[in-house]
Amino acid sequence: MKFIHTADWHLGKLVHGVYMTEDQKQVIKELIDILIEEQPDALVIAGDLYDRSVPPTDAVNLLNDTLHTINVDMNIPIVAISGNHDSSERLSFGASWYRKSNLYMTGKWLPNQQPVEIKGVRFHPVPFSDPGPIREVLQQKDLTSHHDAMKAVVEKIVEKMDLSVPNVFVGHAFVLGGSTSDSERTLSVGGSGCVGGELFLPFTYTALGHLHSPDAIKHDTIHYSGSLMKYSFSEAKQRKIVKVVEINEEGAVTVTEKPLKAERDMREIKGYLQELMDEEFYRTQKRDDFLKITLLDDGALIDPMNQLRQIYPNVLHLERKLALRDQSKRTTASLDAREGKTDIDLFKEFYDQVTTSDWSLQKENKLTTVLQHVRNKEDQS
Amino acid sequence: MKFIHTADWHLGKLVHGVYMTEDQKQVIKELIDILIEEQPDALVIAGDLYDRSVPPTDAVNLLNDTLHTINVDMNIPIVAISGNHDSSERLSFGASWYRKSNLYMTGKWLPNQQPVEIKGVRFHPVPFSDPGPIREVLQQKDLTSHHDAMKAVVEKIVEKMDLSVPNVFVGHAFVLGGSTSDSERTLSVGGSGCVGGELFLPFTYTALGHLHSPDAIKHDTIHYSGSLMKYSFSEAKQRKIVKVVEINEEGAVTVTEKPLKAERDMREIKGYLQELMDEEFYRTQKRDDFLKITLLDDGALIDPMNQLRQIYPNVLHLERKLALRDQSKRTTASLDAREGKTDIDLFKEFYDQVTTSDWSLQKENKLTTVLQHVRNKEDQS
Lengths: 381, 381
Fold this sequence. Notes:
CATH architecture of the largest domain in chain A: 4-Layer Sandwich
Structural class of chain A: alpha/beta
InterPro entries (chains A, B): Calcineurin-like_PHP (IPR004843), DNA_Repair-Maintenance_Comp (IPR050535), Metallo-depent_PP-like (IPR029052), Mre11_N (IPR041796), SbcD (IPR004593), SbcD_C (IPR026843)
Shape of chain A: elongated
Number of helices of chain A: 13
Strand order of the largest sheet of chain A: 6-5-4-1-14-15
Low-confidence stretches of chain A: 178-191, 323-333
Pfam families (chains A, B): Metallophos, SbcD_C
Number of strands of chain A: 18
GO molecular function, one term (chains A, B): exonuclease activity
Radius of gyration of chain A: 27 Å
Helix content of chain A: 25-40%
CATH topology of the largest domain in chain A: Purple Acid Phosphatase, chain A, domain 2
CATH superfamily of the largest domain in chain A: Metallo-dependent phosphatases
Protein name (chains A, B): Nuclease SbcCD subunit D
Oligomer: homodimer
Keywords (chains A, B): DNA recombination, DNA replication, Endonuclease, Exonuclease, Hydrolase, Nuclease
Number of domains of chain A: 3
């Protein structure tokens, strides 16, 4: 039995003010190509299908079309759960109709929930939940941490689980480690939102969502697939993939990967402004990538973001090495240097640094008037 | 063939700040009782299932449960369209899965749309739409009014329609008249959001939503069902019903009604405050109804809303006959009466009217200080 494990699609995501829907559409096409090639028996989506509880209608249409293509047109069963970004109610609306087409959309875990059986493998979908609702549904007052709540859920599932067949846990949580079952670590984790990976050892495979890196856990049977694509610059160096999970008749698991490649990558570049604006350099670059640029220049620069965007239209974030260095100095030397200077003096220094024109008496008079006006206002209030 | 025609459920509606979800739940139970009794071949919901494009999750759950009971548990086919209050994208998410269970949810009309056939009757669902999208989809630039857009849609449907079987139009629009086909009237209607009823004469029955009164149109075959319950005081005197539509083998239509009765009615009462607060009176009343109260008292009253709510917890709106009368006077006589009076004089008059305590020199001094403080602030800005 073979299934594809993916998660964290975040449809409708806005990165630095830019909607990623078109990029998501393209990566989903790649996913569908993988499904055509692999012909799996199921697709598992481990939460965060949408980026927010009320996604934009473009994202609603994209999810509808995607699930339709995979589930109805290609006839592939889908096991999906809601993540912390989804609205469990809105996402699971209509779930009982979907089941008839082997689309299993779960928004809320309930103790009497039956596993989803596909080709002899039993899937146990457990959507993201705060401890509160689990505490209520199990009537166990002591479930205050995510770890304890998940432990109680897993115990409830394992209680009724047939261990003679392969069992797959599908979850959306912040799971730590998993390679050891160091109880001290688990205790220290208890209070936070983390869950100890050892909980999932009874399962043949655990398909997780929440962390965006496919390497967030290194374990034979406990896996994050990572997100559909890069959603922040902290993910710039992560590879993006889906996991292909095969369970043979003896219940042994093999996990391989298939890469996903967004047409517009998200990456960081560093350099001097003049260098980055040089055709020799930029013609070697994929200029429409989503970029975080760090400028190494020391001096003042006139609106570098605007200059850079003429060449790199999708600069999302700009950093100056200089600015950072100044910031650290300021706390010691530069504060002293300011002492005894008038506001006019300080402004003159600033003006010299950020413009190329000369300071004049006329400008000084104008500034004096403005400062006086501001001070009068301050006195009144 | 028999079907029930309903519309304008407005789940998630907030009336004067009060969520109606519990009341809606109760009326929907009545609807389900009617379905059990009537055993119809279909249920038609002619738009505005929700009150807004992003309804509260309670309303999402209520619609999910209701459709599930009717469609899955009772196995009754449902033909539903989105109204102007619904988000067509969000409501029709999953529509292709629903179709397999004979739940036909249409969010957008398309020219190649096939009718829904149930027991030999063909339903033509046309969700609410502004002229814009219809203009685009039909590539007819001249469709600027609702009437023209609807005319084009109907023509497109009638073109391919088999007139030898009964055809039911399901729409959500502001339809006028319908008993005559007076082209002048139609023209005068053109510019507004209205649609001439004569457009629907080719259909065996036209099931409309949008207007909340079941009597909005008096016509043999063109009908509004009206809303599920009263949603404003302008509907206080309307009856609330569903229509039971039977089409016999010759294609003849019979329409009867079944009443819906919200447990808490929405109604108006008028009287003097003392009278309404008198036990003799209020024990004859259903005190938890949603009320608009018009007080006939002439003099000043101290916080009458608060007093009334001790007895009638769901007073939603309070009107004073006096206040209205004063308002009309003010433009003529009372403005003159104010001339020459100081702010202190005017405040004293107001104070005497709304309190039972006496005016004092101490109070006058306090007021003078406050007024001076306010005036100083005004001078400064």
